[in-house]
Design brief:
By secondary structure, this protein is an all-alpha fold. The chain is built from 4 helices and no strands.
């Protein structure tokens, strides 16, 4: 087991590191900013849609999933860029797969939102 803080101190430190990560993503990642704004706007819109609470929660969860996947993708890109700027097949593959994960999460939003909203018609 690695040494370090335990108990509430560990939780406080972890929260601090998480906030630093969110600030870094907001500052350095345009896609994160765009998807975060989309999350806020569509979440607000979901409150006026004629959907059940469970449908609304599913719709909002898909939006959070996009932001989560974007954070992971940004972390992958940062690590790959840290390793070196020269082109390497595996580095390109890692970045492409991370980007594909974001794309799939966005597709999930479209599918879920369209399915729920079209069901209301």
């Amino acid at each position: 087991m690695k040494p370090g803080a335990t108990g509430i101190t560990r939780v406080i430190n972890a929260t601090k590191y998480s906030m630093q990560g969110l600030k870094a993503a907001w500052k350095n990642e345009a896609a994160f900013r765009q998807e975060s704004v989309l999350l806020l706007i569509l979440t607000a819109i979901s409150f006026v849609l004629p959907v059940t609470l469970i449908e609304q929660l599913v719709m909002i969860c898909t939006l959070f999933l996009v932001v989560i996947v974007e954070l992971i993708n940004s972390a992958i890109e940062a690590v790959v860029d840290r390793i070196g700027s020269e082109h390497h097949e595996l580095s390109g593959r890692a970045k492409d797969i991370g980007s594909a994960a974001v794309f799939v999460s966005l597709a999930l939003v479209v599918i879920v939102w369209a399915s729920i909203l079209l069901h209301q018609i």
